[in-house]
Amino acid sequence: MTAIAAPARSPAGWSVVAGRELRDLWAGGRALTLSTVYSLFLSIVVYLLASSTNLNFLEQRESVTLTAQLAIAVGALLAMILAADAISGERERSTLEATLLSPVSRRALVLGKLVAAFSIWVAAWVIVIPYIWFLGRGVDIVWEAIACTFVVGTLLAAGLMAFAMLVSIAVDSNRASLSVSLLVLLALLAPTQLPSSAQSGWAGESLYRLNPVTAGEHYVGKLLTNGHDWTQDLDWLVSPAIAAVALLVLTAVMASSLTLTGWRER
Amino acid sequence: MSRRSLAGLMAMAAAFATAGVGTAGAAGPELQVEVDRTLVRTDLGTTVSVRTVTRNAGDLAAADTILHLNILSLERGTYVDPEDWSSDRTRYVGSVAAGGSVDTTWRVQAVTSGRFALYVTAVQSGKLAAGPVNGPAVEIDVAGRRTLDPDGVLPLAVAIPAGLALVSTAVRRRRRA
């Protein structure tokens, strides 16, 4: 990224950074390429789900749930990738020095980059809408599915993105930043592969509730597959909400310590 | 039919008759299952409730009684996974006193259109040889509606990635120009 010249009396520094980053991301084609790959993935999943002619009512609701859950996981992953690249990527490309010389605070710089990374989650949500509409219109859960995908996905994307930004601030290598972020996401997703017997019981449920990713995905399942009310399982959204707020606050705090090198070099 | 096989059949018939008289005549618990209705008309996706009353018409308590809900399709070719209809199909109601009864409400979601029969079976875990007791069947008539058009997915699955790829290519070309 090139140096940012913020006008003296102008929009806040973060919005100037966000505007520049958004242009780089979308007009540069990177976000569009990622969105295309994401939509291709959704197309394959939805085609496989919908081409089965024997889906009953419940299975159709389950297919909407699966699509929403995948959209949330992959959309949050895309936001995480962009956030993980935000600082360490500039370090590797040797453009961070010029960026740091810009007349904006470190916090505004990091916030602007977070906003840009978040935009890909918003795009991912918009892209999944027609797929949800196609699968869910016969079982009357289109609006619920669209809304809950947005709410849960926003919480998870915000938390994961903030975590990836923290890693990106801390490490020198872009490869390390991406690896750590992806490893953490995989670890958070791993419990979904446990057999249902391991998910029940005190320990299993606690793990599911504490893990923001599994808790968020569980909430989506209860709302869409089981037809629960919005408020019925709201306690499952506590850990995604706490994780998002805590990590965003921590990122804002740690942003002031952003330097040309990672923490290890100090 | 040979004489030997005829004699065998007669011996089997005698054994069944003896067993039937023995069960009917013996003192003990006698479970009966009743339903609050025999026909339910509903729409796909709707949850309906069916109430059963399990009575013990015998002179001894029916210990360790278990009730189980069964669902089957009345039309050939319609697949039924009872677990999809209700995840709570077995109730351990314990002891039913002589002359007493147990009320049970079963909530089932109509997940497939068509005609189905639902019935409840009562079993005593300590008296399996006495056999299960089935209640009357409730006919569930689920009005059908086509919920998914598998043919319609292909244009959608192709159009969205293709549209995004086109925009992406156009943006890259414009940037290079």
Inertia-based shape of chain A = globular
- Helical content class of chain A: over 70%
N-to-C span of chain A? 24 Å
Distance between the termini of chain B: 96 Å
Detail the topology: elements first, then pairings.
The complex is a heterodimer of chains A (266) and B (177).
Chain A: H1 13-27, H2 30-50, H3 57-86, H4 88-92, H5 96-100, H6 106-136, H7 142-170, H8 174-189, H9 196-199, H10 201-210, H11 212-224, H12 238-255
Chain B: H1 3-25, E1 31-35, E2 39-43, E3 47-56, E4 62-73, H2 82-85, E5 90-96, E6 101-109, E7 114-124, E8 133-134, E9 138-143, H3 153-176
Parallel strand pairs in B: 2-9
Antiparallel strand pairs in B: 1-3, 3-6, 4-5, 4-7, 7-8, 7-9
In brief:
Chain A is mainly alpha-helical. Chain A is built from twelve helices and no strands.
How would you explain this protein's 3D organization?
The complex is a heterodimer of chains A (266) and B (177). Chain A is mainly α and 266 residues long. Chain A has twelve helices and no strands. Chain A has one domain (13-265). In chain A, helix 3 packs antiparallel against helix 6 (106-136) and helix 7 (142-170) packs antiparallel against helix 11 (212-224). Chain A is globular. The two termini of chain A are 24 Å apart. Chain B has 177 residues and is α+β, with helices and mostly antiparallel strands. Chain B has a domain at 29-148: Immunoglobulin-like (Sandwich). In chain B, strands 2, 4, 5, 7, 8 and 9 form a six-stranded mixed sheet that branches. In chain B, strands 1-3-6 form a three-stranded antiparallel sheet, with no helix packed on it. Chain B starts with a helix and ends with a helix. Mean pLDDT of chain B is 83; it is low at 11-25. The chains are: A mainly alpha (266), B alpha+beta (177).
